[in-house]
Design brief:
Blueprint: H1 2-23, H2 32-36, H3 43-52, H4 66-82, H5 88-102
Length: 103
């Protein structure tokens, strides 16, 4: 029982450390592994944030398409799971292109 608890605590600390590493660099520098290391509840928030900023960390627009973002969250997660070394930014932009093409 102690080994299971220890291993669970070790895995939790490891995933928290990976998420902390991801947050030390700007979102525009993240790869998909950084994004996937976030807790599932934070992943949509990261996409909201990334969508609102350009690569120079400047706000793109004062208006945010929340309905569109809700559609791209599962797309970004799926794309990142398939290519964890790819840039998070490219997956967000590619997912937007797919959603806009289907509209």
């Amino acid at each position: 029982m102690k080994k299971v608890i220890f291993l669970g605590a070790l895995a939790l600390c490891s995933s928290m450390a990976m998420a902390a590493d991801a947050t030390k660099k700007p979102v525009s520098k993240w790869n998909c592994e950084d994004f996937l290391a976030l807790d599932e509840s934070f992943q949509p928030k990261a996409i909201y944030f990334a969508e609102g900023f350009n690569k120079k960390d400047k706000p793109v627009d004062a208006v945010m398409d929340t309905a569109g973002i809700e559609k791209i969250v599962p797309l970004v997660i799926q794309e990142c799971q398939q290519a964890p070394k790819a840039t998070f930014w490219s997956k967000v932009k590619a997912s937007w292109a797919k959603v806009k093409a289907s509209m």
